[in-house]
UniProtKB/TrEMBL annotation:
It holds the Pfam family Endonuclease_7. It comes from Micromonospora wenchangensis. InterPro entries: Endonuclease_7, Endonuclease_7_sf, His-Me_finger_sf. This is Recombinase.
Amino acid sequence: MSAFHRNRRRADGLAFYCKTCAAARSEASRRRRGIAAQKKAAMPLADGLKWCPDCEQIKPVDDFPRTTNASGRHSYCKPCHNSRGKETVQRLYGGSREYHLRRRYGIGQREFDELLAEQGGVCAVCGAEDPQHVDHDHRTGWVRGILCFNCNGGLGQFRDSPTRLARAITYLRGTTWQRALIHPGVYQMCSPTRGRPPSPRF
């Protein structure tokens, strides 16, 4: 059992391949992807320090992102870890925009552009030009359309509820305060839902 790495996700708590085979598989995978073997520190490290093979610097362990592996920290320091993530997103998805759309909504930039073209290039609610926000049903995850920032946020604030939106429409139509003439040169504010204020007695 000592010849296998630990793996909490497996029933027996051990990796599928032994350490020797796992190392060989990792090296073969790196060669296929054109990635150089990970460098190691030239000298033993004191407690609280860790070697980053990308920038080849010894840094405090707090400079390394946390993870669930045995050491509790990633192999690369935070700046190198972030740059590797960006490189992977660029290599696999062509950029962060494509990655975000695929991961969050299940569509790519091509589908986004097609949907926007079907809407005439404007927000599906207010008609504003160049909308950039994907609107989706929070219950099913299905994409509904492309909206501007304000319309997308507005639907979210109303929790995608037609009932709440209908009540808001009723509220806007029924409680707008207006200026009413009650005497030549004398005005008073009134609300249609509360009726015209009584005329004063002179």
